Amino acid sequence: MQNINVLILTVLMCISYSLNADPVVQSYQLNVSPGEGLAGNGITDIFAGTRTVWLGTGHGLSFTKNNGKTIQSLGTAHGIGRGSISAMWVSGDTVIVATANDTLTQVSDDYLANGTGLSISLDNGQSWKHIKQPPFDFPTVQNLTYDIAVLNGTIWLANFGGGLVKGENFGENWEVVPPDSFVFDPGKRLNHRAFSVITADNELWVGTAEGINKSVDGGKTWENFSRTNQEQPISGNFVNALAFQKAENRKIIWASTWKAEGETEFYAVSKSENGGKTWTTTLGDSVNGIRPANFCFDGSIVYVATYEGLYKSADFGETWCRFPRITDTVTGEKVYSTELYSVMAQNGVVWAGTSDGLAKTSDNGYTWDVMRAFQPTGEGGRPRTYAYPNPFSPTRHNVLDNDGYVRIQYNTTLPTRVTIRIYDFAMDLVTTLVDGKIRYTDGDFNEVWNGRNDYGDMVANGVYFYSVEIDNDGTYWGKIMIVN
User: What number of other Cβ atoms are within 10 A of residue 451's Cβ?
Assistant: First the structure.
């Protein structure tokens, strides 16, 4: 799930309708080879299907069929919509993904998101059908899908601008279904701004900007649970993730409940074992709130991906432990972020989706395998070095312990030593990142810079140059623009 500002102020049309418009279906066979490697480093969703782990990223859809040894990616040529993966649903060979792009509004300098459609595969990704973003006649700005569920052949979409949408007969007919008795009006009613949807034993659960809604009759009637209408309520009304756990004769609804507009609200995980009649909160309080993003379960074990790290509970949320910072055990590659967007666990193997790459552990976090997206250097006419993200903001990009990090990518063609120096625009030395570092093999590598000089001071905004000196090879140059 993405970091969403629930109080976004935008002009939304207030309409109520049933939609059976032509979805403009386009079919694609996989006659174009998938790309190699992760599509992007922001891992928004992770799901396991038949023989395949599906990975939603900020730059498209990726998958692995061999437990992460190799990763491939699909794009528009294969039937996947433009932009990032904003939602995903997987069951067996059936995969549904929603995509979204940012767009620049004409009334301000803000970038607002819009959905670019749904892509559906019934054969484990061998062929795809793509339709434009439901509901079809709704303004595109802020009409994007944040979550997907399927109940008895009906697809349910949690949309921000477009509301809760259902597609009967697996998406043949689409209809806006407000999760209450009011006329659809997302401009005025926060409960019509949907962010999460799940099914649980034939019940439908929907999280919005005004709490949690439950329907036991396929969306005909609804019950709402909010911070203000129960004696034992959820912690906050912005519900950006829901999950259902069924283990050891227990049935639990888990919710990521963020602080919204109420003064008593706070960030936490809320859970209910009695169908929503009462809720308990955990992993956060009114002082030290944790911002959850997603859940997964491995039997009775609960994992929560949060913006403060990855948490695990072996006693249904009574106590928690936080995983240490993620570092690849073999390569030393670090994940320079505490923000986790997604998590998936199966048979003791845990996949963690962060804002800085994908990680996997098979031994409870003692060792990690870190996988990242990057363009190889020195191949096919590509330069021998580049820096990313670029422009780079030390206060916003890859932030860990109050420092942000930019990566300097380079390659070697034989075992060698590497020295990397940073210079300002006047070519005065700012800092030396590595001096004679041994690289025992050839390949692609990277070093990181936190935007500080040798005295520990943050450098000023501007253009900086760097040199990569490779023994018995040469010196290669690049530049980094610092923008805070």
Answer: 24
